Every structure is written in structure tokens, then in C-alpha cells.
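If it is no trouble, might I ask you for a protein's amino acid sequence along with its C-alpha cells?
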Amino acid sequence: MNAKFTARPTTRPVCRLTALLLAALLLLGATACSSTTATTTAPPAADSYVFAYEGIQIPLAARADEVLARLPEPASVFKAPSCLFEGEDEVYAFPGIEVYVGSYRGERVVAAVFLTDETAKTPEGLAIGDAAAEVDRIYGTERRESVGAFTYTKGDTELAIVTVQDRVTSIAYYGVFER
């Protein structure tokens, strides 16, 4: 039996590590296993979550080089040994988001996208800092829930939202990969 795992990067720039560590721990417990996915350059499936940055779609599990070529120049790139994939993970920082890239089965793929501040919004309109009630209004209540952490699954992707004191504090898109 093949195990599945959600691409939840644990290597983050130090300045955000503490704040997101709690969110990652809460979400990890709620989303250990899920569906499989494959690398693709085709348009994202209708049954998957896809973040768009400046009108450019960033499908999870897509070939990273093709996605990064369409995006503007990143503000920074952070590399660290991978905890989930082979070799090194790379974090490409853009204003308002971070794109996580890992090597999966010999290919560099988009593993996750993190929204980092209120300037970035999901395609449905949710942003960091919004009232927690907006999560239910926009995405509904069909989800996995663990102490203020909400995980919505669509196909081979997950949308993870964390709320603290009735405010959205973290929004992340994750690909789900077969081990």
C-alpha cells in the first residue's frame, strides 16, 4: 500500500518560523494522508485549488520551472535540505506570497503556496487579517477542523486556513503526493 503525504514544508525563513510552526503542527495532525497527484503542465483540474498571483495561475504539482518562468522575478530565494522531498527545497518569495518547490520523483514541482500578508487574496477573496466568519461564508463548513485550523480538500490539493482570535492568520495551498 502506497502512503500519501501532504507537501507541508517545514523549512521557512526564520522570521516567520515561530508564527507558522503552530499552524503547521495543527494542520499536520489534521491532514496526514490524502489523494495522490502527478506532475503536470496541463491546466489545473476543476477539482483542485489553484492560487493565482497577478493573474498567473500557480497549480500545485506542476513543473516548477514552467510556473516560475511565468512569474515576475522573486524578491528572494531560500534553499534548505528537504524534509519531505529529495535534495533541497526552494522557497521563492514574492510580495504577499511564497512558492515552495521540491524535487518529487526526479522533477522539480510546486509543492505549496503560502500567502504571507493581507496584500494577497485567494481567488475567492479571502485574505490574512479577515474575520474568521469569512472562512465559513466563502468556503463553507465541509472541512477538517482542529483548534482554529481548517483544511479544505479538493482533488489532490488542500487549502489550509488558520484563525486566531477570530482573525485569519495563515492561508496555504498544498499539493498531495504519493510516497
User: Anything to note?
Assistant: The domain at 4-178 is CATH 2.60.460 (protein yfey like fold). The CA atoms of residues 3 and 179 lie 5 Å apart. The two ends are 10 Å apart (CA to CA).
